[in-house]
Structures are given as structure tokens and as C-alpha cells.
Design goal:
With 165 residues, the protein is an alpha+beta fold. The protein has one domain: 2-Layer Sandwich (Alpha-D-Glucose-1,6-Bisphosphate, Chain A, domain 4), CATH 3.30.530. It has 4 helices and 8 strands; from the N terminus they run ββααββββββαα. An 8-stranded antiparallel sheet has the order 1-2-8-7-6-5-4-3. Strand 6 and strand 7 form a beta hairpin.
Length: 165
Amino acid sequence: MRCRGALSADGRTLSVSRTLEAPLADVWAGVTESDRLARWFGRWTGDPGEGFVMVTMTAEATPLPPIRYEIDACEPPHRLAIRSSGQYGDWSLSVELAEADGVTSLVLHQHDVDLATLAEMGPGWEWYLDRLVAAVTGGEPPAPGDFDSYMVLAPNYAALADTVT
């Protein structure tokens, strides 16, 4: 298992990437369609045209109440930007997709990162993105109980915080 995250020079944005052997349309659907998103992250309800959706996490071992996500940008099939604020913290996320020869690159950005939580946050995104890859390509996503095995990446992510100038 390797760390696929990078931190911006100012320490404000964590970026974690994946390369998927799948067409862009399939990856976009995995990120934006409720039933497909539910396979690896959570199911959303509501009308995105209103500028927000409610997301019920489906990957967690413990059920969580629905979380409101504001949609800041939706530029199919290349970019989605969302944010949430509540009892589980403030989250500002964006996903960028690009395809070449049937292979899609995905970069997830978490903006306004709290460096004190990077050692846990980074492995968490690695786990979620491995779940996404499996869900899109027909594999079996890592189970909620598998999250602990991703914590071997915690020192790598903690070290990223030390690079901030």
C-alpha cells in the first residue's frame, strides 16, 4: 500500500489521486449518481438543481445521520465541487477527472485542510478512493473493517504536514 496524496505548498489542500481502467463516463457516474455513489461512499437524496443534496453515508460501520452537501460546481464530466459543515466538521471537496485512451485519472482535493488531522484524513481518503475504484471497475470494495489497515499510511501523511512552509 502506498501513499498517493500530496499537500499543496501552503498546506491548505490535500490531493489524492487514482488511475482507473474505465471510461470517463463510468467514473463520473460513480461520483455523481446516487446509486453508484452508494457503492463506495453514500447515497444522496434531493434535487441537485436546488444547489444541495442530503448524503447518507453507506460505507461507515456505524450509521450516521444524513449530511447536507452544497454543490458549488458541477461541470460534467470533469469537475464536481461540494462542501458541508456540521457536527462532523467542515468539508470542502472537489473531484477532477480526465480521460486518455479509455483510462481515467481522478484527483480528489480536500480544501482548507486541518494539518492536525492529516494523519487520519489521508488514509481515510485512500480507503474511500480504493472503494471507488473497486465499485467502478467491478471489484469488491474494501469493507468498513478494512479501514484500520490503511492507517499504515498515517506516518506518510503526518510527514506531509512537516513540508508546509
